[in-house]
Design goal:
The structure holds two protein chains of two kinds. By secondary structure, chain A is of the alpha/beta class. Chain A has eleven helices and six strands. Chain A has a six-stranded parallel β-sheet, with helices on both faces. In chain A, helix 9 crosses helix 10. Chain B folds into four domains: 251 residues; 119 residues; 76 residues; 116 residues, Histidine kinase-like ATPase, C-terminal domain (Heat Shock Protein 90). Chain B is rod-shaped and about 150 Å long. The chains are: A alpha/beta, B alpha+beta.
């Protein structure tokens, strides 16, 4: 797999590139800013771009700006945004227009990059065109709803399935993670959608299901 | 304004240099009148007495008006008095006296009328005034010229030996000239009355009060002059008849000094009563009460009042805030300083320019509220102290929020990035280690590190959420709500505000939010922020239990908001839940 990295912190970038190289990922481009990455990308087309969310000059959402640019101009490239903070609004901004496209987009906390398995798994899924959402982002949303007793209708197993769905996992991925058969996973998913009255079913685009679940979790009005 | 200590004096207090000058002027004009009209006076002592009094009083009034702003009116009145005196040379009926008398009469009315139009401002302010002045000069000087050019002296009240131009002497032309000029005189008189009336609505209160009596007097004088002049605008009038008319006209003119005297007395009366009114209206002596009383008494709603703050060395407003005063005399304002009995600056009043003409009234009003002003200044001084303390607090909050933000950023950008890199390195070690024990140990290290990182982040967030600096109050609050596990509806403006405002707003909203969740057990919170007219109004409403007295719990919010001159109130009148409303000034 060919990967490009844009990260302003030299020490983190260095460690990340070393880690990726060790596990056999081909790092074709390593840039210190989003602009540098965009300038050099035509000669080194990667499969996936890893973008730090906060980069110079303003350290606010440069990663997001670059990601939007890439999604628009290089649809074949997957984008994985890294953030040091669990920032739901920024993450949702990234997935805002993704419901009708199957394009690999991911949002991962830097904490989870330290786990090489998580990182590789996420890169793999983004390259395949899946949505990847950091488990911490999802668990905070699920916890919030759970505390508000809105998930009391679900069984514990169903809550686990819900979390994995929200993280962007496919039925097969969920089954693998929870050691369940695909039939069982399908049953759980159907039960969850019925109990929570989530109207928009997956359909042909698997990304749609992720967004439907996330939208339910983030909804302002309780249902 | 210093209240002078009374001095012992032997003459009455009103008898100063001005009064002396006025009496001398009156005497000179009376003497001139006596000399000019001597042939007539010898037979008409009563008419002489009345005319002398009229001329002298007009001259006295003119001399009294020779102070700064009414100087021109004074000069013109003196001129008018002299002209009327000279007019009486007609009675000599010899050589140049006839022409002299005719033109003096015209000059008299012109000087008198323009003098009144110049009163009290000293300028011909309206175009109607200026137009009338030009037209009146043409008619009043042109009339006698036309008449004298078309007649012989024998056709007039004067003797045949009088100097008389008579170049185009022609009876028909003479009659026509008399008729036309007679009508024009009436037109001039009536239009003068109209011009005077037109001026009134455009004047400020002070000017109108000062002008009204003399305006009425002069309108009457003008019209009566035109009407009395008309019967003598004929051929073969005897000199005696003409001089009789002059006596009447002179007597009527006495109305002008009387009117001025009346308005002067009215002014004095106003100045005397203003003290009582001010005293009544300034109890209790608050800044607003004094200012309103002054505005009321002086009929000037634009009046402003500032107090001298010796500690600041500047004037401050009622709230104790230092004011920077613009240069005086621009935009038609003027200022009056009030000093304490010890002669130190106490207050400064700024008034509309028209009140200049009533400066004695202004002084009397300010003098009357001297005590009240001192009391009010004490209040203002306390206010100014509070204001300073508040400003210091404000700077402190500002510095604190900056320091927090800086510290949070250092933790976040410096330490955190290094620790994360360390984590990736440990992950690397974990991936490449062949010995399972090393791998396990590296994994433990990495997880330990992540736990430490989470603690560091919580610390940094508690100081200043990174998201607040980056994306503003809305996103930061949304994440905070997720952490608290509550649904939140955010209705915030997209615009960004100064740091300390955002920080205070976020802190206060967060406090209210956590209160709603943790104490009121609300599950749904609405946050609404509006900015208008330099204020931010934030409302946090929850659907939780109503808590009877939550004020103590929100004390921390109130304190923070109070420092920035805002306020917090709790509305609990909804059927369920609580609404906390915060108002934060934000220029």
């Amino acid at each position: 797999m060919r990967v490009a990295v844009a990260e302003d912190s030299g020490i983190f970038r260095q460690a990340l590139v070393t880690l990726l190289t060790t596990v056999g990922v081909d790092v074709v481009l390593s840039a210190a800013s989003g602009d540098e990455l965009l300038a050099r990308i035509p000669g080194n087309l990667p499969d996936v771009v890893i973008l730090d969310l906060h980069m110079p000059p303003t350290y606010t959402n440069e990663g997001m700006v670059v990601a939007r640019h890439l999604l628009e101009h290089n649809p074949e490239i997957g984008v994985l945004v890294l953030s040091a903070h669990n920032e739901t609004p920024q993450a949702m901004e990234l997935f805002r227009d993704q419901s009708n496209q199957s394009r690999g987009v991911g949002y991962l906390l830097k904490d989870h990059v330290t786990d090489v398995n998580t990182l590789c798994h996420a890169l793999e899924r983004v390259r395949k065109g899946d949505i990847v959402i950091d488990p911490d982002v999802v668990s905070r949303l699920v916890d919030a709803r759970h505390r508000a007793d809105e998930l009391s209708r679900l069984t514990e197993r169903e809550r686990e399935v819900l979390s994995l769905m929200a993280e962007g996992q496919s039925n097969a991925g969920i089954g693998k993670a929870l050691l369940l058969s695909s039939r069982t996973v399908e049953d759980h998913v159907r039960a969850i959608f019925t109990k929570l009255k989530i109207t928009s079913m997956g359909g042909p685009a698997p990304n749609k299901r992720v967004l439907a679940v996330l939208t339910w979790l983030r909804a302002v009005e309780p249902r | 304004m210093v209240i002078p200590a009374p001095r012992r004096r032997w003459s009455p207090p009103w008898f100063g240099a001005e009064a002396k000058r006025a009496l001398i002027a009156g005497g000179v004009v009376a003497g001139t009148t006596l000399a000019c009209g001597w042939p007539y006076w010898t037979g008409h002592q009563f008419a002489a007495a009345v005319t002398l009094i009229a001329c002298a009083s007009l001259a006295v009034e003119g001399a009294l008006l020779l102070t700064s702003r009414t100087r021109r009116t004074g000069l013109l009145f003196l001129l008018a008095a002299t002209a009327w005196a000279v007019n009486w040379t007609a009675s000599w009926d010899a050589g140049p006296t006839a022409l002299l008398s005719v033109y003096s009469q015209a000059g008299f009315y012109l000087a008198l009328a323009v003098g009144v139009l110049l009163y009290p401002g000293g300028r011909l302010e309206y175009w109607a005034d200026r137009a009338w002045t030009v037209a009146a000069a043409v008619v009043l000087w042109g009339g006698p010229t036309a008449v004298s050019l078309t007649s012989r002296p024998s056709w007039t009240p004067f003797g045949a030996e009088a100097w008389w131009p008579g170049f185009f002497a022609d009876r028909t032309a003479f009659h026509r000239a008399l008729a036309v000029v007679g009508v024009l005189y009436i037109v001039v008189a009536v239009s003068f009355a109209a011009v005077l009336l037109l001026r009134l609505p455009r004047m400020a209160w002070a000017e109108r009060v000062a002008t009204l009596p003399v305006t009425a007097a002069l309108a009457f004088v003008g019209v009566s002059a035109a009407l009395t002049q008309r019967p003598v605008m004929q051929e073969n009038i005897r000199l005696g008849e003409l001089l009789q008319v002059y006596v009447i006209q002179g007597v009527v003119v006495i109305l002008v000094p009387i009117a001025l005297l009346a308005s002067g007395m009215r002014d004095r009366f106003g100045e005397l009563t203003v003290a009582g009114r001010m005293l009544r209206m300034t109890t209790p002596a608050t800044v607003e009460a004094i200012r309103d009383a002054l505005r009321n008494v002086l009929h000037d709603p634009s009046l402003d009042l500032w107090f001298w703050a010796p500690e600041d060395g500047s004037y401050v407003d009622g709230a104790g805030r230092s004011v920077r005063l613009a240069q005086e005399d621009d935009g038609g304002r003027w200022r009056r300083e009030v000093r304490t009995a010890a002669g130190e600056p106490l207050a400064l009043a700024e008034l509309g320019a028209p009140l200049r003409v009533r400066s004695p009234l202004v002084d009397a009003a300010l003098k009357a509220c001297g005590r009240a002003l001192e009391t009010a200044r004490l209040q203002v001084t306390v206010q100014a102290g509070l204001e300073q303390a508040r400003a210091a607090y404000e700077r402190l909050v500002h510095a604190e929020s900056q320091a927090r933000e800086g510290l949070a950023r250092d933790l976040h950008d410096g330490a955190q990035q290094r620790l994360l890199a360390l984590g990736v390195m440990l992950g690397h070690l974990e991936a490449v280690a062949i010995d399972p024990k090393v791998r396990e140990y590296a994994g433990d290290c990495r997880r330990e590190l992540l736990a430490a990182l989470a603690e560091l982040r919580a610390l940094s967030r508690g100081m200043h959420p990174a998201l607040l600096a980056e994306d503003g109050v809305g996103p930061a609050l949304e994440v905070a709500a997720e952490r608290l596990g509550v649904r939140i509806r955010l209705d915030l403006p997209a615009e960004r505000f100064p740091r300390e405002i955002e920080f205070t707003l976020y802190t206060a909203l967060y406090e209210a939010l956590s209160h709603a969740v943790e104490r009121a057990h609300g599950s749904y919170v609405t946050v609404r922020v509006r900015s208008a007219e330099g204020r931010l109004v934030a409302e946090v409403s929850d659907n939780g239990d109503r808590i009877s007295d939550i004020a103590p719990e929100l004390a921390r919010i109130s304190e923070r908001i109070g420092v920035l001159r805002g306020n917090v109130e709790v509305a609990g009148d909804t059927a369920q839940g609580t609404t906390v409303r915060m108002v934060l000034p934000c220029e």
